[in-house]
Queue: 2 jobs
Job 1
Amino acid sequence: SKVKSENRKTIWNIEEVPEGSEFDDTWDPREQPEYEILFKQCVGTEDVFFGMSGKDPSTACCEDIVIKIKLPETKYSDITLDIQDTVLDLRTPKKKLLLHLPYPVNSKDGRARFLSEEEVLEVTLRVSRKFEFINFA
């Protein structure tokens, strides 16, 4: 069967292009900032003392991803942040970060805050898992 394209001059379909490839611009001379990826999970006393929920300290049981990006000599107003389900794209006048995330996230449900004293942007994203009932049953 033949796939019909909206534009006859295109050489591939939109489904064939991987998510985040539109951000790949290796020609950009801006340097990549230092960053750190942390994983966060919500635990209660039943988890800590009794292990009743079946959670373990692995990243498979974490609910959130926290990304801390060091941005020295940067103002909050200079930061451009775009988050897709598997890609974080950060741009400032001096720095650029294209980060493929370790897990898919809910791109509509996230928080970012700029800690001006530490010159760090902290981005918190909710991990999106397809089979949540299996992971945390």
Note: The two ends are 42 Å apart (CA to CA).
Job 2
Amino acid sequence: MVGEEGAFVLGWEEVLTDEELSVTLKVLCMSQEEFQEYKEQDGWEDDTDEEENSLLSNEALSRLKSPCKKLLCDSVLLTLESYSSDLKADQDLLNNKEAFERLSRREQQALHVRYGQKRILHRLLELIQ
């Protein structure tokens, strides 16, 4: 369900791996009986429900059912905990010209990427809480 990378790709406006995330959330929030039915039907290939086929835009994420929101929220919090610094620390480093310039070019680029990732994750938390 998650694909080869084992991760979901989030953008500022929507989930870029929306189908994978949608199916994963649904399967993980199913009861045992619902999952058994899902397996027997080989998924939702014949499902025509608009919600199932819609992109997971920021607006759609905010309308997820509570169990899906909780699962997604817990996942985002675990991901944020895996970073060695928090969003504010990265922002402070970016704003401190002297400290930023002491970093190697590679460290500066990594800081920009890490800061962007954290901003997206924090935005996702705002949408689902």
Note: The domain at 18-128 is CATH 3.90.1420.10 (set domain protein methyltransferase, domain 2).
